[in-house]
Amino acid sequence: MKIKTIRVTPIAFRDPPLLNASGIHEPYALRSIIEVEGENGVVGLGESYGDAPVLEVLQAMVEPLVGLDSWDLNALRERVVQTVARLPRPEAGAELAPGSHPSKQVANAYSAFEVAFLDLTARTLGIPLVDLLGGRVRDKVPYSAYLFFKYAEHIDSPYPPDAWGEALNEEQIVAQARTMIETYGFESIKLKAGALDPDHEVACLNALKKAFPEAPLRIDPNANWSVETSIRLAGELGDILQYYEDPTPGLEGMAEVHRATGLPLATNMVVTDFDEFRRSLALGSVQIVLSDHHYWGGLRDTQVLARMCETFDLGISMHSNSHLGISLMAMTHVAASVRNLSYACDTHYPWQEADEEVIVGGKLPIVGGCVELTDKPGLGVELDHDQLAKLHAQFLSIDIRSRDDARQMRKYKPEWTNPKPRF
Ligand code: GKR
Ligand code: MG
């Protein structure tokens, strides 16, 4: 289907004060919503990062893509490559979202439009998007309870505090897990670590094990622990971990931790493209790759990655950043097409507010820990234009233009710096 018009709309939605290795989430997360309209009037949807450097590329793509056929993903890639080559290369920041790194400009712009192109094609054909990916091998995709240490409220948000409350100790983190599990039925638990004292974080994971003995557990310090700390704590974690996610920086560091502990290591930080995949294989750095179609280069490259993981006997699952329902459905469609999906995927979705979804009908249900695919065409969701306008107005009303969790943390702790690793 020939493309008539493209719209890229930056939005901002509330994000709770979640702690991580870099600092703390800002009061708003940024995304871009992409609409690709065909000559038949059908609109394909996409969702991606909303940080300024990414947004610049997405907006620069609007004109070169008009007139292309939504089938023509090779031409899409070519035009992304040409456009990025013409733009100035942004500086790298302190990203926890690898997708916003300058080296990912092509991969994430391609991905953002690939989803929307596939959605347009599938809607035009009247089939679910997953059918363009070879069809579903499962009807629903499992996600995990993604726990964060957090403050009770933001220092600088005009909104009242979120309903989750503070989570800094064992009792509070168990309560957070209980709410998440009771509300969404998650069966696996991931604890975002690298924020507080590592021994305290391990004590919290042990408290989770006690409270939810059946749930597979993961801990993710986002590479904020030294090799030494990672190995020492593995001694206490070994028996209760399903996998150890990015304990320490670098492919070499991860390989050393794996050699010393024998634990399965997962990553969304050291294997973020096929070149790193190759180097990781040579070093034995990771045993599970957490894919993210937003920066791996789309839904079809995620399938290629899954095949590579199968070939080399690695596990595969999915990483997430703060996102809304269009991304959740794109993740769900691709995960439903991956035969060897080995673990429940990550999602930040429960952290987003019910009145800030951009799709018709509000937030998508997560039931029994899963998101279910329907037989509706494309991604199976429609854009709510009033909500889009509201969240775009919110974007225009704030001054955040790139995610910076360290800058936000300095509002609480002016001396905050980010040595890597911190512990
Ligand atoms: O949202 O604070 C966060 C996470 O730390 C995120 O930025 C990471 O990219 O969720 C991610 C992860 O698994 O590393
Ligand atoms: Mg991670």
TrEMBL record:
Pathway: Carbohydrate acid metabolism; D-glucarate degradation; 2,5-dioxopentanoate from D-glucarate: step 1/2. InterPro entries: DgoD-like, Enolase-like_C_sf, Enolase-like_N, Enolase_C-like, GlucD-like, Mandelate_racemase_C, Mandelate_racemase_N_dom. Pfam families: MR_MLE_C (PF13378), MR_MLE_N (PF02746). Residues 170-264 form the Mandelate racemase/muconate lactonizing enzyme C-terminal domain. It catalyses: D-glucarate = 5-dehydro-4-deoxy-D-glucarate + H2O. Its EC number is 4.2.1.40. Keywords: Lyase, Magnesium, Metal-binding. Gene3D superfamilies: Enolase-like C-terminal domain, Enolase-like, N-terminal domain. Its cofactor is Mg(2+). Belongs to the mandelate racemase/muconate lactonizing enzyme family. GlucD subfamily. PANTHER family: D-GALACTONATE DEHYDRATASE-RELATED, GLUCARATE DEHYDRATASE. This is glucarate dehydratase.
